[in-house]
Write a structure and sequence with these properties.
Layout lengths: L1 H36 L1 E9 L10 E4 L2 E3 L6 E7 L6 E5 L6 E4 H4 L4 E3 L12 E3 L4 E3 L7 E5 L22 E5 L21 E5 L2 E2 L1 E4 L2 E2 L12 E7 L2 H4 L10 E6 L8 E12 L9 H14 L8 H7 L14 H5 L3 E14 L3 E12 L11 E13 L5 E10 L1
Parallel strand pairs: 1-7, 14-17
Antiparallel strand pairs: 1-4, 2-3, 2-5, 5-6, 8-9, 10-16, 11-12, 12-13, 14-15, 16-17, 18-19, 19-20, 20-21, 21-22
Helix pairs in contact: 4-5
Length: 401
């Protein structure tokens, strides 16, 4: 009897244990189905702290932006039980705000706080070793936004700095297109095409923290995020002898977290030649030659009939040729074309920026072979966060032209 009692007790224990496992699995499965089924449609407005609609607000889920309707409402679907479904709201002059799907459910508006003075766009000064808040900067720094350089139709980035910063003087010495690495050395008849100076001194170029020769590494405006002009003694003292004459710190574009983009830019136009050497015509030369000879007491070399023949401007006359070789050989305009494709984005762990650009500037020769300028730029900037303390950058850039 005791044996059957113990067997019955053990059997009942195992039955209860198995029943508990089955119930647990059923509850878990129901919960899983509940989470997957809790997809709700959210309609919200982005407002300020006083409840006023922000008309230029942006909403994105992950890397995808959502457009608002005519009433300022954003419609999208979220899983209200999933805290990993993140939605980011942003607007110019306001702090970005990121909320989860569980916070979005049941709400019809999200309020953004106004940005503090130190984080307003344009208040950061990019420098080779750090980005400094302008209110903490004791020196005189001029920051040129990369977007401001896109409107200058030139294949030489240096020329686009003209008029962008106080105390910065840009001089174009000749009209050759593009930039050539030998211009600093004067080889093969090349001379310095353009100079960028402050207080009469040539500035040193630093690209992404590394000193560089801008003629050897030609950049497209589409690659540039910002340019910081360091020209006063306080700013230059931070960088030692390298910055003795001042620094043009160029920061190239990089990918941003959860901000995917694809940009295509096509430009076409005509550049007009500002100045050409002027020459007199054959008839004017004959008149001036006669005047000079008479002033020295000599008889004139050309008669009135000779001058009349020169005025016919007949290029085929063997005795009285008069040819405007400048108009015959040179044009006063040249074509300009620019095309580029850029993409960027990434996550908290890895970010990327890719750029491919083409620049073309025609020649001014009316006859003979083409001598136009063509250049292709390629850039790849990758940022990887290994852990909280270690990060790495992989930058690849090249130019063919």
């Amino acid at each position: 009897m005791g044996f059957y009692t113990r067997a019955y007790a053990h059997s009942r224990f195992y039955l209860i244990f198995l029943l508990g496992i089955l119930l647990s699995g059923t509850i878990s499965a129901n919960n899983d189905r509940g989470i997957a089924a809790e997809i709700v449609t959210v309609s919200i407005q982005v407002v300020d702290e006083e409840g006023n609609l922000i008309p230029d607000a942006q909403v994105k889920i992950g890397e995808n932006y959502i457009a608002a309707n005519e009433n300022g409402f954003f419609f999208f679907e979220v899983n209200e039980m999933d805290d990993d479904a993140l939605v980011t709201m942003s607007a110019a002059g306001f702090e970005d705000k990121t909320v989860s799907g569980s916070e979005m459910a049941g709400r019809d508006s999200i309020s953004l706080e106004k940005s503090k003075l130190s984080v307003i766009p344009g208040e950061l000064v990019p420098l080779p070793y750090l980005d400094m808040e302008r209110r903490h900067a004791t020196g005189s720094y001029n920051v040129i936004n990369g977007e401001d350089l896109l409107s200058y139709p030139s294949t030489d980035l240096r020329l686009s700095f003209a008029g962008k910063a106080t105390g910065l003087q840009v001089t174009e010495h000749h009209g050759a297109p593009g930039a050539h690495p030998t211009e600093q050395r004067g080889f093969y008849g090349f001379s310095n095409k353009a100079s960028v100076t402050a207080r009469g001194r040539n500035l040193t170029y630093v690209i992404d923290g590394r000193p560089a020769d801008i003629a050897e590494i030609p950049l497209d405006p589409g690659e540039v995020a910002s340019v910081t002009v360091v020209k006063d003694i306080v700013g230059k003292a931070m960088y030692g002898p390298l910055a003795a004459d001042g620094i043009m710190y160029i920061k190239t574009r990089r990918g941003l977290e959860n901000d995917a983009f694809l940009r295509v830019n096509l430009e076409s136009g005509t550049s007009i030649i500002d100045r050409f050497p002027e020459w007199v015509s054959g008839a004017d030369y004959a008149r001036l030659n006669n005047i000079a000879r008479e002033a020295d007491g000599f008889s004139p070399s050309y008669s009135l009939d000779d001058i009349a023949e020169f005025e016919k401007n007949n290029p085929y006359s063997l005795k009285y040729p008069s040819v405007d070789y400048r108009d015959y050989m040179l044009k006063d305009s040249r074509a300009f074309r620019r095309a580029n494709l850029s993409a960027g984005g990434g996550s908290e762990t890895a970010r990327y920026f890719l750029y491919l650009g083409y620049n073309h500037e025609g020649d001014i020769f009316s006859i003979g072979s083409k001598a136009d300028y063509n250049r292709i730029n390629l850039r790849s900037n990758v940022d990887i966060e290994i852990n909280d303390r270690i990060s790495t950058e992989l930058d690849i850039n090249g130019s063919l032209g």
